[in-house]
Amino acid sequence: MLQISQLDIAPGQSVQLRTVTWRQYKKVLEDLSSHRATKLAYNNGKLIIVRLHTKQEDNKEIISDLIKALFEELDIEFRSLGSTTFERRSDLKAIEPDQCFYIKNEKAVRDHHQIDIKKDPVPDLALEIDIDTRSHLEIYEALGIPELWQFSQGGLSINTLRAGKYKSVEESKLFPDLPIKDLLPYCLEQSRTLGRNVVMRDFRQWVRDTHQRRQMAS
Question: Which of 19, 62, 135, 150 has a CA that sits 20 to 30 A from residue 187's CA?
Answer without folding.
Answer: 135
